[in-house]
Amino acid sequence: MRLPDLLASRRGRLTAFFFLYVTEGIPLGFAATAVATQLRRQDVGPAEIGAFVASFYLPWAFKWAFGPFIDVFTSQRLGKRRGWILGTQVMLVITLLSCTFLDLPAQLGLLTGVLLIHNSFGAMQDVAIDALAVSTLHEDERGLANGVMFAGAAIGTAMGGSGVLFLMPLLGLKGGFVFVAACIAMVTVFIVLPLKEPAAAPGSVRAAGLASAGREMRNFAVEAFRSFVGTRGAWSGLWFSLLPAGAMGLGLALQSNLSVEVGMDDDAVAWLTLWSSVISAGCMVLGGWLSDRWGRRRMLGLYLALMSLPVFYLMTVLIEHQWIFPAAADLRRAAPAALVTAVWVAVLLYSAGLGLMYGTRSAIMMDVTNPAVAATQFTAYMALMNLAIAYSATWQGIAIEALGYPKTLLIDGVVGLVCLGVLPFIKPSATPAGDGGGARRARLLALVLAAGCVAWLPFRAGAVNFGAAAPIFETLFTLVFVATAVFLAAGAATLGASARLAGRLGLMLAPLLLAMYGRRWWPQLDLLYYAVPAAAALVLLTLVRQPWLVLRIERPVPA
């Protein structure tokens, strides 16, 4: 029987990307829920389990680094993106099956290492799937498709977590590894293999050889740089991605903490989580479909506003019952039934708003992504969104202890609306090659990054004591260093001979800026942690003065 090419029809594309995202969710749910639960039952300590789960998620924080390789190194026979998806899924199956030969919990360290490699292939697969989606989905189906994709991930997480736990009495832990590998293999055989990705244009085929690969990487860096700063829509997408996408408190640790404090037992919390996931998955599909019909920016603005309403509602109920600050376990009082009900109502309503927003937000970022560098540009947007989640979780944890739950919810609900000011500017450009403002935006970005590098110096010296908020600033400065490294490397390739000295200095500083992340483990290299950002700031200020003529587009003179 000949299997159909799902990319050839609208329904087929939706089906293909749904199942591809299911394969992303299954291993995550399996490791974070099923494996972690069984390890705890075997008396593995919480700290070891925490390190295990953290290592499983670690590659996803750096998946943006895979983008340039997936965009440049391709196979004409297997398909530009399909080849990567096929290869990574095969490696996912192999790494999972290799875990069945390990003796747990005695070889937990080795299991952690194998699953770290496994999830590196998973993150690589995610980049390739997103790139395939950008290049094959039609504009009028991106909203629905993204909703379907994230719903698939949610269902996959439930299958790998709760599903495997239900089957554990029959399969055992090793059988769980085989079950997850079999699920991925089925998608590989019945979904990925029959796909027929459109052939690349003749002029885009890369010649063989390392020299050719080097030239392609340089040309790619220039095109990627143009894609981010060349149009107002893509430029606005950068800042939108850095801002919280609506209120976030009821989707982060605040919700879990509050559920425990109002007296919910484990079963109640589990049921609340289950219903939240179901509602959110359904609304992901609905929100994407509505955005395709009524306009993505209009509907996304509505969804973002709706996310703040249950936050403000819960805030008023907490004030009414004088439930302000977190309390230690031995000091907790019994929560009124009305307050427990309010937590249920607020969380479920928030889950609906979150689901409506999720797929639509990704679709609008696809609209301003250049398909030629889709794996890099779209993944960068997603990585910045993950950073927004990380710093939101950090400041909210600090704020709960310092200000209490109601004020934290108030700040969360208000800050979540700030992104609405950027939303109107995120739209595809009529001139995808650039709108003439790329040079100005490049100089502005260089100036902002230089200011960030300079601000690091007094922060590192302890000139201002941020107290418990210091981790937030550490995270933000790490972003500054990574962004500066990328800007200097791509800027050097873009400017070429017009800024040869600055370009060479920038290329030298780029790996040192990335190495700044090591300050957490090697604090004794203190002088280096001052010198590198200071030197980077000087080079950036030099680039601010560059005209960036290569990014300017001469507009035709009317006849």
List the SSEs and their pairings:
Elements: H1 10-41, H2 46-61, H3 67-72, H4 82-98, H5 108-136, H6 142-192, H7 210-229, H8 232-242, H9 253-261, H10 266-294, H11 296-320, H12 337-367, H13 374-403, H14 405-415, H15 438-461, H16 470-495, H17 500-514, H18 526-544
Helix pairs in contact: 1-2, 1-5, 1-6, 2-5, 4-5, 4-6, 5-13, 6-10, 6-12, 7-16, 8-13, 10-11, 10-12, 11-12, 11-14, 13-14, 13-16, 15-16, 15-18, 16-17, 17-18
Quick recap:
It is built from 18 helices and no strands.
Textual characterization of the structure:
This protein has 18 helices and no strands. It has 559 residues and is an all-alpha fold. The chain folds into 3 domains: 6-196, Growth Hormone, Chain: A, CATH 1.20.1250; 231-425, Up-down Bundle (Growth Hormone, Chain: A); 438-547, no CATH class. It is globular and about 65 Å long. The model is unreliable at 203-209 and 554-559 (pLDDT under 50).
